[in-house]
């Protein structure tokens, strides 16, 4: 039979990490090595770096899930945060497992833009929409990510006749509508785009392909 100290060690959460996309921020962790891991309950706290007191996250207090949504708690995006998780099994509590420091503005991943295309016989018009954050304006609409960063759209064209993998950068800038001209009628083209952040030298993933035949 495990002694209390062994049980505490065996249920202690591992790999406590923030994951964040467009400021939608969740805390993830792995279970300890206890075989009864499915009966373990978890308790989450968070704080701003430099504060003395930890805050309980009420919705993640005594949960069996290994994910906790901290979007609301990390909404001051320039502040650095910590979180920590402990586990309990059969009345025995593990020690706390601490996350790394997390600063939303610096570390959230930016998602790709939404892309829509329309075509005429020799040109393609591309409409771009930046991803939205979870934070809302007073009127209720979600604030676009472009409010928080100096972001550029990068638009690439793929000529399916030549090579599916060969993307050519045709536009970089802030315009939400661009026109790609002097294309060949009867050819299938695909458009992909991403967001680029010069200041941090980060790019989003590529958007899904939008294809059209002129």
TrEMBL record:
Q: Which PROSITE patterns match?
A: FN3
Q: Pfam families annotated for this entry?
A: Interfer-bind, Tissue_fac
Q: Which SUPFAM superfamilies match?
A: Fibronectin type III (SSF49265)
Example GO molecular function term? cytokine receptor activity
Which locations, inside or outside the cell, does it occupy? Secreted
**Any idea where the Fibronectin type-III domain is?**
12-107
Which top-rank group of organisms is this from?
A: Eukaryota
Keyword vocabulary terms for this entry = Disulfide bond, Receptor, Repeat, Secreted, Signal
Q: Does the keyword Disulfide bond apply?
A: yes
GO terms under cellular component: extracellular region; plasma membrane
Family from the record: Belongs to the type II cytokine receptor family.
Task: Give the function comment from the record.
Answer: Receptor for IL22. Binds to IL22, prevents interaction with the functional IL-22R complex and blocks the activity of IL22 (in vitro). May play an important role as an IL22 antagonist in the regulation of inflammatory responses.
UniProt-recorded name of the protein? Interleukin-22 receptor subunit alpha-2
